[in-house]
Design brief:
This protein is mostly beta strands. The protein has strands spanning about 5-15, 20, 30-35, 40-45, 55, 60-65, 70-75, 80-90.
Length: about 90
């Protein structure tokens, strides 16, 4: 894997309604999600999916992906969850 030339970081507040975390990006090299909140958040591939179908990211944990370029959504069973994201691209 080559080094990414563009990197962006941002914070997002996650609640009980799915919100778009990342848009599809064919130039994406990797992304990292850190759950800075107090409850588990769930990474999902479509807005209509539920927490039961998501990848759980517990409070204080992170998720890293270096292979997928698609759109991602995020949801929680608790409102007001602080999530930090880094996306690296060409």
């Amino acid at each position: 894997m080559s080094l990414a030339s563009k990197s962006r970081t941002f914070a997002i507040t996650v609640g009980t309604t799915a919100i778009r975390l990342l848009t599809a990006n064919p130039k994406r090299k990797a992304f990292l999600i850190y759950n800075n909140g107090s409850a588990t958040v769930y990474l999902i591939s479509e807005q209509i999916k539920t927490v039961a179908e998501g990848i759980p990211i517990p409070a204080g944990a992170s998720y890293n992906n270096e292979t997928c370029y698609g759109e991602y959504w995020i949801i929680s069973e608790s409102a007001g969850q602080d999530v930090r994201v880094e996306e690296d691209a060409e």
